[in-house]
Amino acid sequence: MYSGNLSGEIPAEVGDLPYLKTLELHKLSRLNLTGPVPDSLSNLKNLRVLDLSFNSLSGSIPSSLALLPEIDILGLDRNKLTGPIPESFGNFVGRVPGISLSHNQLSGKIPASLDNRDFRWVDFSRNKLEGDASMFFGPNKTTGVVDLSRNLLEFDFSKVVFPTTLTNLDINHNKIFGSIPTQMTQLTILSLNVSYNRLCGLIPQGGKLPSLDYTAYFHNKCLCGTPLESCK
Predict the structure, then answer these.
(1) DSSP helix/strand/coil, 141
(2) Where are the alpha helices (DSSP H) in 101-228?
(3) In this structure, are residues 49 and 72 in contact, taking their beta carbons and an 8 Å threshold?
(4) What is the side-by-side order of every strand in the sheet holding 128-131?
């Protein structure tokens, strides 16, 4: 159901539909859906697609969603969800190639258990998440798109090892420190934004990095080199 006139809460009885494969309640009326994400959704053992984005759902994310054995797509973005990301999300029973929790009010640290997953794309932007986010990267991952912008993340960027598959990275408006790893010159970067952080040092002069617009780098502590001012 897209852009309809349905409002109110998602009834727990939705969990009594054992053969349901797709549940998309997306951007429903000006009022949108409210209330919590029902824990009973974890009973939907054949569910492949769960998209509850662009609503006004509130409360915490049920940790039991990680028990969905067939889930391929999980979209909870653009709601009013609060609290931490469940630790269980690092142990999804289903494949879950990508996850979108953006535009909520999620807080706390990203669970280290997410290092167990190899997401192709991640969008945790516009929340209140803190601490480390390096678990999304690594030489053995196949991640292509990562958006962690507009959070309160704080970790050493210079120690991150990126997967060779990474094409899009947005970490703007955080508290990330360190320098830009020279390994990034070897990546096929289509989009990069590291602005509004606490990065320092020379922007690696190779690959596509020097040809990006200066706005991809500005408002950091002391980044320098093309396309910013030369280092002193």
Answers:
(1) coil
(2) none
(3) yes
(4) 58-59, 80-83, 105-109, 128-131, 152-153
Count Cβ atoms below 10 Å from residue 231 Cβ, excluding itself: 11
Please give the Cα distance from 218 to 57 (Å, whole number): 35
pTM of this prediction exceeds 0.90:
yes
Give the model's pLDDT for residue 31: 58
Is the pLDDT at 173 greater than 80, yes or no? Answer: yes
The pair phi, psi for residue 20, each rounded to 5°, is: -65, 130
DSSP 2: B
The stretches of the chain forming alpha helices (DSSP H) are none
Instruction: Give CA–CA dist 192/141, Å, rounded.
Output: 19
Kindly report, residue by residue over 54-101, the tens digit of the pLDDT.
Answer: 999 999 999 999 999 988 889 999 999 999 999 999 998 878 888 999
CA distance 64 to 87: 10
Could you tell me if 56 and 34 are in contact, meaning their C-beta atoms sit under 8 angstroms apart? yes
Residues 68 and 94: beta-carbon distance below 8 Å: yes
Rounded distance between C-alpha atoms, residue 163 and residue 127, angstroms: 24
Based on C-alpha coordinates, what's the Rg of the chain? Answer: 19
Segment 132-155, tens digit of pLDDT: 999 999 999 999 999 999 999 999
Distance spanning both ends of the chain, measured CA to CA: 57
Give CA separation, 195 vs 149, 157, 169, 204, in Å: 9, 13, 11, 15
Q: Residue 30 above 70 pLDDT?
A: no
